[in-house]
Each structure stands twice: as structure tokens, then as C-alpha cells.
TrEMBL record:
Annotated Replication factor A C-terminal domain residues: 9-95
Protein encoded by which gene: Ddias
An example Gene Ontology CC term for this record: cytoplasm
Protein name: DDIAS protein
SUPFAM superfamilies: Nucleic acid-binding proteins (SSF50249)
Pfam families (UniProt xref): Rep_fac-A_C
Listed GO biological process terms: negative regulation of intrinsic apoptotic signaling pathway in response to DNA damage
InterPro entries membership: DDIAS (IPR043522), NA-bd_OB-fold (IPR012340), Rep_factor-A_C (IPR013955)
Highest taxon of the lineage: Eukaryota
Length: 130
């Protein structure tokens, strides 16, 4: 699944999601089901303690080249240089910020992150491996 079939030079038109990090199975990278104490992967059956869950980037974008519009999703560590940290560390920073600030609404604390991501990506041109 990691084989690149071609390259596409395109500009980012919009960011399609506001949640850029997801709890991911270490075996198959599928989204984990988390509760307050445990995680479970519905795809491969992996389980563990919620505090040990791994996190991964998932950034969905609408992009345009000179002829067409595309919806594309960028996964994993290739986004580390753009965010400046791994997805696991960014998730930890967000949790720490919410605890220190007393923020109880997780949605409210993501607004600044969404705005920063939009500023960094929208209108910029990238080469995507597809």
C-alpha cells in the first residue's frame, strides 16, 4: 500500500477534517476504539490499556492541479516535519494543555490547531505521491 504510482503537483484548496490525529493500531494502523481505560482494534483484535494507545496523523485535503480537483488523505509520519512533532507527542501536548488550562470541551481547544493547519497548508503547493 505504500507504493507510489505517480506524483501529483497540486495546491491545497481546503482542509477537509478538523481532527488530524487518531488513535491507531500498532499492527494494522486502523482506528482504535477507546474507552476510559482500554483500547480495541476491530480489524485485527489488538487490545490494551488506553494510556498505551498509539496515535497517527490523518489529514484530508481538497487539492487542485491545473486541470482537476482531488480529495486526498495524507497519513502517518510524513506529516511530522509539518507539525514539528510526532502525532503521539502532539496528542500528549493537547492533553497536557487541556489539563493545565482546565479546558473541559476538547472541541474548543482544537480551534487554534485547525486554524494553524489551515494557514500552513491552504494555498501552498505540494508534490503528492499517489
Amino acid at each position: 500500500m505504500n507504493s507510489v504510482k505517480g506524483l501529483l503537483a497540486a495546491s491545497v484548496i481546503s482542509v477537509q477534517n478538523s481532527c488530524f490525529i487518531y488513535p491507531a493500531c500498532r499492527n494494522c494502523f486502523s482506528r482504535l476504539i477507546l474507552d476510559s481505560r482500554r483500547f480495541n482494534c476491530l480489524k485485527c483484535g489488538c487490545t490494551g490499556e488506553a494510556k498505551d494507545a498509539s496515535y497517527r496523523y490523518r489529514l484530508s485535503l481538497k487539492i487542485a492541479d491545473t486541470n482537476d480537483l482531488f480529495d486526498i488523505t495524507v497519513f502517518g509520519s510524513c506529516l511530522d516535519p509539518f507539525f514539528g512533532v510526532t502525532a503521539e507527542n502532539l496528542q500528549r501536548y493537547i492533553q497536557d494543555f487541556n489539563q493545565l488550562s482546565g479546558e473541559t470541551n476538547a472541541e474548543a481547544s482544537t480551534g487554534a490547531l485547525v486554524q494553524a493547519v489551515e494557514t500552513c497548508f491552504i494555498g501552498k503547493r505540494f508534490i503528492f505521491g499517489v
